[in-house]
């Protein structure tokens, strides 16, 4: 609760500075409306069905993209992390693909899969796979060799070692990658909706609101809603991680 109060105090302080800067004329109100106006617009939009549909479209695309990313990256990370020769053989292609900005692939994706929801999901998956993949590989590299040797001495098969020894050890690292990918996937979904002109979603709403040049309160309201969704996603995953991996924190404290 103390952390919550501090966060709220910081947020309120930011809004007060923003409000004051606009009211005294440091920032032109035409381009940056005060937060009181933006918040009023946000509340009004949350009561409109078209806007709610845009929010649902964005959140649904994000959830699908993150689910696909987890389903692809975790098994791939386990395989690459446990098979040294395969990890070496694929290192060049992975290091070539990873730095490519997902937004730069929008024209290619639009040509291949079209401009529907598939485009933003595809780009979000591409961007979100890498943190989970690399965290999984890194986690396997940090496993205590004694654990693996003990499992081999007991006659444990390779597949059983991955599921019973490697995966539990790697789970906290994998979950950290998922938290990072959750934010990245949301950014890519909204960005693709904005840049590619999707038929629905928060990015499309912001694009249409900004086309007139006089609806900056709606533009900022859409941005605020996207930020709140991102905050809630990260906070929810953080709380989930604390509950799921209390044992990991306890081991870390004991090691200190």
Write structural notes for this entry:
The protein has helices spanning 2-23, 35-45, 49-82, 84-97, 106-113, 117-141, 145-153, 158-195, 202-211, 216-244, 246-255. With 256 residues, it is mainly α. The chain has a single domain (36-255), classed as MetI-like fold (Orthogonal Bundle), CATH 1.10.3720.10. α6 runs antiparallel to α8 (158-195). The longest helix is centred in the last third of the chain and has 38 residues, at 158-195. It starts with a helix and ends with a helix.
Keyword list:
single chain, 256 residues, mainly alpha, MetI-like fold, 11 helices, disordered C terminus
Brief description of this entry?
This protein is mainly α and 256 residues long. Helix content is 82%, strand content 0%.
State the separation between the terminal residues, measured CA to CA.
27 Å
By CATH reckoning, the class would read Mainly Alpha
Q: CATH H level: which superfamily?
A: MetI-like
* Parts with pLDDT < 50 across at least 5 consecutive residues: 250-256
Biggest β-sheet: count, sense, barrel?
none
Number of E-state strands: 0
In the CATH hierarchy, the architecture is Orthogonal Bundle
Helix content: over 70%
Q: What is the fold-level CATH name, i.e. the topology?
A: MetI-like fold
Give the count of helical stretches.
11
Spatial extent as radius of gyration: 22 Å
Shape: elongated
- Protein structure class: mainly alpha
Mean pLDDT: 84
SSE order: HHHHHHHHHHH
Count of discrete structural domains? 1
